[in-house]
Amino acid sequence: MSGLNPMSSARARDLLIGIAGGDRTAFDIFAREVTPFVHARVSRIIWDQAAAEDVTQVVMLKVWTGANRFNSGRGNAFAWLTTMCRNTAIDHCRVEQRHQRISDAAKESAEVLDDNVLDETLAAAERREVRIALASLNSSQRDAIQLAYFEGLTYVEVAERLGEPEGTVKARIRRGMIQLSRLLGETHVN
Amino acid sequence: MSTDNYSETDDSMHSLTGAYMAGALSTAQFELYEAHLETCDSCIAEINEMELAAEKLFFHHAASVPEELMAKVLAVPDRPHPSSAAQSAMVLPTPKSMGSKSARLRLFALAAAFIVIVGFGLVVNQSRTLSRAEQVAAMNDAESLDLTGEDFSIELVISESSSSVAFIDQEFSALESDKAYALWRIPVEGVPEFLGLIRLNDDRKTDQAFDASVADAAAFAVSIEEAEASPQAPSDQVILVGQLS
Ligand SMILES: [Zn+2]
Fold first, then answer.
1. Spatial separation of the C-alpha atoms in residues B108 and B127, rounded to whole Å
2. Which of B129, B164, B184 is the endpoint of a domain?
3. Would you call A101 helix, strand, or coil by DSSP?
4. Measured between alpha carbons, how far is B90 from A48 in angstroms, rounded to an integer?
5. Which residue positions in chain B have pLDDT lower than 70?
6. In this structure, are B238 and B155 located in the same domain?
7. What pLDDT, on the 0 to 100 scale, is given for residue A72?
8. Which of A94, B100, B117, B121 is most buried, judging by how many CB atoms fall within 10 Å of its CB?
9. Do A37 and B58 touch (CB under 8 A)?
10. Residue B188 sits at the chain A interface (C-beta within 8 Å)
11. First CA to last CA across chain B, in angstroms?
């Protein structure tokens, strides 16, 4: 199903179970695959490149020391990792206030999908597939997901940003994520 | 407790599936939601429906990782082997036996001699919140030491070369609001050294580093102290101990 992905949720979960047990090889495999994506995620929240690298390292350290706290039976590995990237970066911003969050800057959500921090690790076709799927969502769902995922806002912050009730935003992200999965599943089948 | 802020009904928990999968929950919300997942099959079914989106979004953006960064990422500290933890427990007084009066008095009478600063604010100044960079730098030659007790255990990262120790994202048990955890260095010879009070965030977690001579340390310990009062009269509650090999 997710053939082009570097790693599926199930594979990530298996590796995290190994990491929780102190398996260095599992950590090596996991770290080599996900660090570029952790780094990209952190870099979207922290301007300063050196600081973003430090925080990336801290996130991966938390993977090593905190994998036992991942709800491996039922939780999703990428939800856990994404949340940890965001919250670690935000914690860093609180300590080092000179590094402003990108979301505080005048950055329009329309620019969110720019490729500035990307390298060519992922196939262009794969990224295009995600863009097309995002573009197929209705605009309110797309905006909510983009603000949450690409600008690192919590749904509560998305609601504040959009001036919408939290419940509305929560529902949009929920429907949008389901719809996005369906669209991406269809493109894989085709 | 942080979770009190999110004592949401089950109905509102069910509606967090999307925010959970989009990484759009705060740490406290995330942990509460994962606890909800333990018992909610309908949420599990729904997050499984969103799995492909979470994967694709996560792997949508990559940033190049310099070789030095990858080397640092891979150089995580060794975990203590389970058998060495068992050995520690035998050699060093357990937290419970540390609570026995003679051991306790010896430890704290000596420790108290070091505590000349009174008041929460001044004591806090003895430790410093390392920047992430410093924290990470401290990790490079570091080893982790399990501090174990009856109720919970945490990891302390110790770095001999930088003469520092640090907690990285460690979660402590809840304390009464007028209490605080304190970190102690117990040297091979001589008196225990008070390293500082441990500052916890709303999730009872800390990323905090302390200056500490590791070379001549026999153990590190955590006690419960009065948060506001002077720690000149230390409490008898040593709750976590980890011995160095
Ligand atoms: Zn539920």
1. 19
2. B129
3. strand
4. 48
5. 1-11, 79-141, 190, 229-230, 232-234
6. yes
7. 66
8. B117
9. yes
10. no
11. 36
Contact between B149 and B220 under an 8 Å Cβ cutoff? The reply is: no
Together in a domain, B117 and B150: no
Quick one: tokens of B75? 């150089």
At B83 the pLDDT is 39
Q: What tens digit of pLDDT does each residue of B46-76 get?
A: 999 999 999 999 998 888 999 999 999 999 8
pLDDT of residue B1: 37
- B175 neighbors B207 (Cβ within 8 angstroms): no
pLDDT tops 70 at residue A97: no
Claim to verify: residue B11 and residue B83 sit in the same structural domain? yes
Straight-line distance from the first to the last Cα atom of chain A, in angstroms, rounded to the nearest whole number:
11
Tokens of B80: 């203590």
Chain B neighbors of A118, CB-CB under 8 A: 61-63
ipTM: 0.86
Q: With left for phi above 0 and alpha for psi between -120 and 50, is residue B224 left, alpha or beta? A: beta
Provide, as residue numbers in chain A, all residues whose Cβ is less than 8 Å from the Cβ of B54.
9, 76, 78-79, 82, 177
Domains of chain A, each with CATH number or no CATH: 9-101 (1.10.1740.10), 111-189 (1.10.10.10)
Write down the H helix ranges in chain B: 10-14, 17-21, 27-37, 41-49, 51-58, 67-74, 82-91, 95-98, 101-114, 120-126, 132-139
CATH of the domain at B216: 2.60.40.200
Residues B31 and B121 in one domain: yes
Looking up tokens 């499984």, which residue turns up?
B48
CA distances from residue B239 to B39, B45, B71, B188 in whole angstroms, order as listed? 32, 41, 36, 20
Taking the C-alpha atoms of residue B98 and residue B96, their distance in angstroms, rounded to an integer, is: 5
Write out the residue range of the structural domain in which residue B180 sits: 134-243
The DSSP string of A143-189 is: HHHHHHHHH---HHHHHHHHT--HHHHHHHHHHHHHHHHHHHHHHHH
Q: Across all residues in chain A, what is the average pLDDT?
A: 83
